[in-house]
Each structure stands twice: as C-alpha cells, then as structure tokens.
From TrEMBL:
<dbReference type="InterPro" id="IPR020904">
    <property type="entry name" value="Sc_DH/Rdtase_CS"/>
</dbReference>
<dbReference type="InterPro" id="IPR036291">
    <property type="entry name" value="NAD(P)-bd_dom_sf"/>
</dbReference>
<comment type="similarity">
    <text>Belongs to the short-chain dehydrogenases/reductases (SDR) family.</text>
</comment>
<dbReference type="InterPro" id="IPR002347">
    <property type="entry name" value="SDR_fam"/>
</dbReference>
<dbReference type="Pfam" id="PF00106">
    <property type="entry name" value="adh_short"/>
</dbReference>
<protein>
    <submittedName>
        <fullName>NAD(P)-dependent dehydrogenase (Short-subunit alcohol dehydrogenase family)</fullName>
    </submittedName>
</protein>
Length: 269
C-alpha cells in the first residue's frame, strides 16, 4: 500500500543516478515528486551520460507517483530559489527535501586523464569550487528556501546525500572536505529545526551502480554495490516513519536503514 500519497517531495540533481533512484523510491509510495536537473529533453547535454529530468519525472508517474520536472542549474542561486518557489506555489507544501545535486566530478567526462590529477596540488582550483558551489552551497541555498514552508507546517524531512568520503582521507581533498562540510551543516540545521518538528539527516549510500560507475565497471568491484532504487527506498522508509525525528542530526547508512526498516534492494548484485 502506498504510504506517501498526498505528500510532496523535491529531489535535486535527479536526471540520473542516485537522485533518480531516490525519486523512484518515493514514487513507489505514491508521492508527488518534483525533480530538478540540468539535462533536459532536446537540449545539449552537459555530460555524456544518459538521462534527462523529464525522463525521470515520467518514470515517477509510471511507478504510481506524480512526477514534475524542473530544469535547474543549482550553481545559480536564483534558479534554485525559483525551483523551490514553484513547488510551494503549485503544491502548497514540501514534505521531503532531498539535496542530492553535487559538483566536482567533471574529470570523469572532461577528458582529463585521472593520473594527471593524482594529487590535490595537480588539480585545477575549479574542482574545489565546483564541489562547494554545486554541492555544499546548493544544499544550503535549497534548504534555506524550503525551510520556511516546513517550519510553518511543523513537520518535514531534509536529507543531504553525502558519502563516507567525509570520514576518510583517501577520497580526495576537495571531495572529502565538501562532504564533511555538508554533514556538519545538516547537524547544525537539525539543532535549529528540531523544535519546529523538522528532521534533518545525512545519508551515506554504499557503492551505487549509477550510470557513471557502470561506465567504469571493469575497474570497480561491484560485488557489494547498491542499485539507485535501493537508496530511494531508504529515503522513502525515513519519509514514512512517524518517529523520524529521532534520527535528526545523524549520519545514516543505507545498509543500516535496510535492516531497521526491512526493505530490500530490488536489483541486487
């Protein structure tokens, strides 16, 4: 039985990958899901990876939810604010906000041989700027724009998609620092939002079989990997938990949530 019918979610960076998987996980429970992305049908794609924001919205609807696509480049604060305004104007509420959009991955598709960026001192400063602008700042600006609606409602769930890279030293300086920043940001937000009934958490997926990861499958051990929809089911489980506030301020892992909420990966490796 769908448990998110009548609920409204906004998932950023959902043209493909983890963001798309989260949108579909919420769709399985009947939610209305607004999805943002830079890749739109009929326009020149910003990356060589497949998927558009309209395709994700259509799949959300096909799964039993209602998908709405919003073209948005979250590096532009006004586009971000406009996206949130559209959701509030059309739906009147935001029950779930998933900050998934991220930056700093350009070396995967801009033709840079990875061995030429073997140390942080060899990387262009734009790698750092992209991770913080399209990632940390985008998460902050989106949440600032969405929080008033949630505070007024006295409820809501905010999820920052993060990574164990925040806790490790071998994942790159810019990436690790940006992920650690988004984790601490969510903890501080949770402190201020708790009294208003709004939950804020960081979510660590495992290795996810995104389009980008599958392009490099011959170089990666995918034995214990997760499907994007598995991550989506983790978010949906949180969104349907009436006591989700007990998690606020925490870093949560998809594998742990699966054991706690008893959901499975529909596409296990």
């Amino acid at each position: 039985m769908a448990t998110l019918v009548g609920k409204v979610a906004l998932v950023t960076g959902a043209s493909r990958g983890v963001g798309k998987g989260i949108a579909l996980g919420l769709a399985e429970q009947g939610a209305t899901v607004y999805v943002t992305g830079r890749t739109t049908t009929g326009a020149a794609p910003p990356t060589p990876l497949p998927g558009t924001v309209e395709e994700t919205a259509a799949e959300v609807t096909a799964l039993g939810g209602r998908g709405v696509a919003i073209a948005c480049d979250h590096r532009d604060d006004e586009q971000t604010r406009a996206a949130v305004r559209r959701v509030v104007d059309e739906a009147g509420r935001i029950d779930v906000l998933v900050n998934n959009v991220w930056g700093g991955y350009e070396y995967f598709w801009d033709g840079t041989p990875f061995w030429e960026e073997a140390g942080f001192w060899t990387q262009p400063l734009e790698r750092w700027d992209s991770a913080f602008q399209a990632g940390v700042r985008a998460h902050y600006v989106t949440t600032v724009a969405a929080a008033p609606t949630m505070v007024t409602a006295g409820s809501g769930l905010i999820v920052n998609v993060s990574s164990e890279g925040a806790e490790k030293t071998e994942t790159g300086v810019a990436y690790g620092a940006a992920k650690a920043a988004t984790d601490h940001m969510i903890a501080c937000m949770a402190h201020e939002l708790r009294d208003h009934g709004v939950t804020a958490v960081s979510l660590y997926p495992g290795l996810v079989r995104t389009e980008s990861v599958l392009r490099a499958a011959e170089f990666i051990d995918l034995t214990d990997s997760e499907s994007p929809l598995f991550v989506g089911r983790a978010v949906a489980a949180l969104a349907t938990d009436p006591n989700v506030i007990h998690h606020t301020g925490q870093v949560l892992r998809t594998s742990t949530l699966a054991q706690h909420y008893h959901f499975t990966d529909p596409h296990p490796r």
